[in-house]
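Query structure, 352 tokens:
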């Protein structure tokens, strides 16, 4: 497989603040050779979701969606962007591709997996007069894939469809498929760069980017929103907005930036135009496994203690009255869980 970029350069590119602008020229030589070598087959299926992840991918700017679909990958099945539909499409473009390419194709899953009532809450077609449920499709196809890319928080962690009371018993992909590597690219929706960059990494280097404890590529999800927020100065000076539109940190209005991992502050959305807090909203923490299991527009009564902790959040606990919010125990737990005390740090990407 052609490799014009070293792994280290690629990671730096993806993690850089101007990735959206600079990714295209670096990927161009690779894409030309990938087209000659034959891009890997990709099957994209949708379960319980809103199709927002597909829409987000279609908004990719650098490279363009044409380049992604025609040169980077060979998209064999996608319910929205292909002309064919119905039984023939399911049989020829999906089941046949999976059977003819065992262990060689990638399966992208968008949406959670409804498992209640034997999966009948989500059917994708019929076979011999019987419904093909999404959970059956995922088992049939997913178990033959080289890897599964769970795009969006619903596929990665259950997301909105799996939020209690969850009458359809929706589950994340990882609770259904156990025998195939899974990369989670969460977000509601995920940024197109996170999806394209993850696919490009896997194709370029033949393996997966370094993942965090929630299966997310570290190159996009290692940063805490709060650390690079342009309202951070307000936070440090304890100036908090009371209403939307006020100057000030949005913490009191429900901002989840202190516990949310993504690089939107520097990557920006919509081709590098804006991001969630800059446009006057709060960070709703859409990339986290707990999303949306918290009041979106209310300040969290306490900050969770766990792998999402960072030194910054520890300090947050101290500033806001750490004894009540986190306490010394939480501080230590965060340090241990993040590997700064007593734990073994993962090798950094690109140091091999
Ligand atoms: S709490 Fe939200 S608005 Fe305030 S500094 Fe952190 S990320 Fe920015
Ligand atoms: S800033 Fe917050 S709401 Fe915006 S994409 Fe990142 S995690 Fe989601």
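Result returned for the query:
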């Amino acid at each position: 497989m052609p490799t014009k970029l070293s792994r280290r350069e690629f990671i730096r590119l993806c993690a850089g603040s101007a990735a959206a602008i600079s990714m295209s020229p670096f990927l161009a030589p690779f894409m030309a050779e990938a087209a000659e070598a034959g891009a890997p087959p990709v099957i994209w299926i949708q379960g319980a979701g809103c199709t927002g992840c597909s829409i987000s991918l279609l908004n990719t700017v650098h490279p363009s969606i044409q380049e992604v679909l025609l040169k980077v990958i060979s998209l064999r099945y996608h319910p929205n962007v292909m002309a064919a539909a119905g039984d023939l499409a399911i049989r020829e473009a999906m089941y046949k591709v999976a059977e003819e390419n065992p262990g060689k194709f990638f399966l992208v899953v968008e949406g959670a997996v409804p498992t209640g009532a034997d999966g009948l809450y989500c059917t994708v077609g019929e076979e011999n007069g019987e419904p093909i449920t999404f959970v059956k499709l995922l088992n049939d196809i997913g178990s033959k894939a080289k890897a599964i890319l769970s795009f969006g928080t619903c596929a990665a962690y259950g997301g909105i469809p799996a939020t209690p009371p969850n009458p359809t018993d929706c589950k994340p992909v990882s609770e259904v498929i156990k025998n195939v590597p899974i990369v989670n690219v969460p977000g509601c929706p995920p940024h197109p760069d996170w999806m394209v960059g993850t696919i490009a990494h896997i194709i370029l280097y033949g393996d997966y980017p370094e993942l965090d404890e929630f299966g997310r590529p570290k190159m996009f999800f290692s940063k805490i929103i709060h650390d690079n927020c342009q309202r951070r100065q307000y936070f440090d000076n304890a100036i908090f907005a009371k209403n939307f539109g006020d100057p000030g940190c949005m913490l009191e209005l429900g901002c989840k930036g202190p516990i949310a991992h993504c690089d939107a502050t520097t990557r920006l959305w919509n081709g590098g135009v804006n991001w969630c807090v800059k446009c006057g909203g709060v960070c709703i923490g859409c990339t986290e496994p707990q999303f949306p299991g918290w009041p979106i527009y209310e300040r969290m009564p306490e900050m969770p203690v766990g792998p999402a902790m960072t030194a910054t959040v520890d300090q947050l606990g101290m500033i806001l009255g750490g004894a009540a919010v986190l306490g010394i125990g939480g501080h230590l737990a965060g340090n241990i869980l993040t590997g700064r005390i007593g734990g073994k740090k993962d090798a950094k990407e690109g140091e091999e």
